[in-house]
Structure to design on (868 residues):
DNA sequence: AATGAATGAGCCTTCATTCAT
DNA sequence: GATGAATGAAGGCTCATTCAT
C-alpha cells in the first residue's frame, strides 16, 4: 500500500527500462545514456544502484528469470507421472509462451538468444545454470518417448531438434529479415505450437523406429 | 604474369581478415584497429578501399556468399526431378556442410546468425535476397513431400522446423554455453545429418498425416 | 557523565579515520566514499559535519597538531637556558619521535610532507603558523652554537640542513622506493638520532669555523 | 635541417608540456584536458601517441632522465681517482644544479620528489634503477672519506644526511610554505652549495671521529 | 596510391555535493 | 539530527573517420 519506498522505485524503473534496452540493442550497444534517459534518471544512477553496467545487466537477467519462472513453468504444471506426450506438448507450449509473452519475457528470450549467439561472458554462470534447469523436463519426457534403446546422445539431439524449432521459428515469426521473407502470422502461437508438437512427435517416432533397425543407415 | 596489383592484394587481405573479425566479434565489436592490425595495414586502409566500415562489411558478405555458393550448392547437385526425399537430404547436408566448413563458410554462417538475431540493418537487402534464393530448393522438395493439401503456411512452418534444427543444433554443437552444457561431439557432422534427416522425415510424415485428418486438432 | 552526544561520536570517528586516509592517500586521492566507509558513516556525513572535504581536512590538521604538540614538545621539556647542544639534541629527538610515533603523529608528518611537496593550498595559514612556531627552538639553539658572527641566513641554512636530515632520512627509512633501495633498519630510531646529532654538530662546527675564516671560500 | 617530421613534433610537444603539467600538479591531478589544451592538441592525442596517461608519464620520465644525465653527470666529470672531497663537492654541486636548472630538470626533480613522497607506483622500476645509479658516486666518495671503520649502514646514513640536505633545502628555497617562511634567496645556489659542502664535510668528520671512539655514545 | 597523424563524439565511471525525508 | 538517494561535472579512454602528405 502507499507509494513504494523512494529508492526502490528508481531501482525498479532502471531494471525495467534496462531490460528493454538490453533486449533491443544487446549489452554492448546499450548505453548508460539511453537507459537513463528513458528511465528519467541521471547517468550516474546506474553506477549508484548497481555498481556498473555489468552489475545492472546481471540484475536485469536475474529479475527476468524470476518473473518468467513463476509465470511459465516449463512442466506446464503437469506432474512427472503424466503422459510423456502431454508433457512434451506442455514444454513446447511453455517455451513458446515465454517467447511470445508480450510483457517481460520476450526480453528474457532476446537476451538469452544474444548471449547464446554472441556471448558477453557476463551471464555465463546464471545462464548455464538456467539452461541446465530448463532441460530437465524435456529430457525426461524424451527418454520415455524414445524408449530404452536411446543413447544420451540420441536424447540430446532430439532435444536440440525441438528447442531449435521453438527458438528459430519464433525468431522467424517475429523479427527482421526472416519475418519479411516468410510473411507469417505472428499471432498464431497456437497454430505454431500444434505444428511443432506434431512435427516433433513425428520426428521422435522416426528416430525411435530408426533405433530399432539401425542397419538401414 | 606479373605481380598482382599491390592495391588489390591489400584489399583482398582486408576482406579475408575482416571476414574473420566480423564473424568472431560481430559487426559492432569489430574495430578498424583490430582488423587492420591483423591485416598488417594502416588504420586508414578500410576507409580508403571500402569507404567505410559499412562498405567493408557489405563487401565481406558478398564475397563470402560467392565463395560458398560455388562450393556448396543447396541442391547438392541433384536435378529438380530427383526424389524429393533425396533432395531434402541433400539440402540438409549442404546446410550443415556450409556451417561446418572449416574454411570460410562458417564465417558466413556466423555473420548470418548474428544478422538474424541482432541485425545491423546493413545487410537487409543482400541477406534477404540470399535467404529467398536458399529457400527455393527446400520449399519445392517440401511441397512434394507434404502433398497437395499443404498450404503455403504449412510448407513454411516445416521449412522453419528443418532450418531451425540445422542452425540451432550447429550452434549447440560448436559454441559457448550450450556446447559446455550438452557435451556433444563436434566432429560428428555425418551423425548429425542423419539425425536431422530422420527426424525431419518423421516430422513431415506426421504433418502430412495430420493434414489428411484435420479434425483431430 | 551520561553517554556522549551521538553526533560528537560520529564526528570524532570521522576525524580519526579521515586523518588516516588523508595521510595514506593525500588530500586529493582521499575520497568521501572511502573515509565514510571506514568510519561506518553515510557519505553525506562529511558535508553535514564539516561542510565540505576542505573543512574536514582543516579540522583533521588542527586536531593532529593539538595532540602532537602536547605529546612531543620540540624543546623536549628543556628550559631555554639549558646547554644549546642538549637543546639541539632534544629538538632532533622530538622531531624524530613525532615522525616515528606509531599512533597519530606519523599522520601529521605525512600530511605536512605532502603539503610541503605537493601543496593543496588549504592549510597555508595553519601550516605556516605551525612551522614558524616549530622553528623557534632550533633557531635559538643554533644561534648560540654558531656564535655571533652567524648571519640570519647562516642560521636558516643550518636549520634546513638539520630539518632536511630528519625529514628525508625518516622518509628513506620508512617508505617506498628509497627504503627498498637502502635496506635500512626501520626500528633503529635511537641510532638514527645519534647519527643526525653527531653529523649536525660536526656540520655546525664546520660552519662556525668557516665563519671565522671567510677568505677560504 | 628543415622542419621536423610532422608526427614527432606533436609527440615532442606533448612530452614537453606533459612534463610541466606532471611536475606542477602531480600525476593524479594532471589531466588530459590540460595537457592537450596547453599542447594545442586534441584530447585523444595522448592515447594515440602514448597509449595512455601512464604511458605518457613513463615516457616523460625517461626523457627527462636522459636529458638531465647528459647535462649534469653526478660525478661532475671528475675521475674516480680524484680527491674524494672534490668528488663530494662535485656530487652536491651536480645535485643542486639539477634541481635549480631552469629548463627541464627541475621538472625531473619535482616528479621524483612526488614519487618519493606520494608514489603512483608507475615509475617504480625506472625510478629505483635511476636512484641506484645516482648513489654510486657519493657512496664511493663517502667510503673513502669515512675510512675503513665505517659500516655500510654508516655510509648510508651519511648519504641520507647529504641528499636530504640537498633535496629539502632546495624545496625550502624554491617552493610554497617554507619559502615564504624562511625568506631565503632563491638565486644563491653557489652559496647554498658551499654551505652544504662545508656542513657535510664537518658532519662526515664528526662521524669518522665518532667511529674511532665508539665508547662515547 | 597509400598511410601516419590527428580528431570529435561518445562511452563508462568516479566524485563531492545536494536533496528529500 | 542524520542519512539514503540522486546528480552534474569531469575524468580517462576508444573508435571510425578525416587530413596532409
Amino acid at each position: 500500500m502507499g507509494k513504494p519506498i523512494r529508492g526502490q522505485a528508481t531501482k525498479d524503473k532502471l531494471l525495467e527500462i534496462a531490460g528493454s534496452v538490453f533486449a533491443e540493442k544487446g549489452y554492448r550497444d546499450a548505453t548508460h545514456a539511453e537507459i537513463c534517459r528513458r528511465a528519467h534518471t541521471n547517468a550516474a544512477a546506474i553506477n549508484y544502484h548497481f555498481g556498473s553496467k555489468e552489475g545492472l545487466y546481471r540484475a536485469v537477467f536475474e529479475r527476468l528469470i524470476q518473473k518468467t519462472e513463476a509465470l511459465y513453468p516449463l512442466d506446464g504444471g503437469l506432474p512427472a507421472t503424466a503422459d510423456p506426450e502431454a508433457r512434451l506438448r506442455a514444454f513446447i507450449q511453455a517455451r513458446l509462451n515465454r517467447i511470445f509473452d508480450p510483457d517481460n519475457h520476450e526480453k528474457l528470450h532476446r537476451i538469452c538468444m544474444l548471449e547464446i549467439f554472441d556471448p558477453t561472458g557476463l551471464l555465463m554462470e546464471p545462464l548455464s545454470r538456467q539452461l541446465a534447469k530448463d532441460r530437465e523436463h524435456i529430457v525426461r519426457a524424451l527418454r520415455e518417448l524414445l524408449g530404452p534403446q536411446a543413447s544420451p546422445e540420441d536424447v540430446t539431439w532430439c532435444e536440440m531438434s525441438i528447442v531449435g524449432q521453438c527458438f528459430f521459428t519464433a525468431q522467424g515469426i517475429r523479427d527482421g529479415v526472416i519475418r519479411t521473407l516468410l510473411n507469417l502470422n505472428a499471432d498464431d502461437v497456437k497454430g505454431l505450437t500444434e505444428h511443432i508438437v506434431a512435427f516433433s512427435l513425428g520426428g521422435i517416432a522416426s528416430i525411435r523406429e530408426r533405433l530399432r533397425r539401425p542397419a538401414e543407415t
In short: Residues 6-7, 10, 41-45, 48-49 of chain A lie near DNA strand F (CB under 10 Å from a C1'). Chains A and C do not touch (no CB pair under 8 Å).
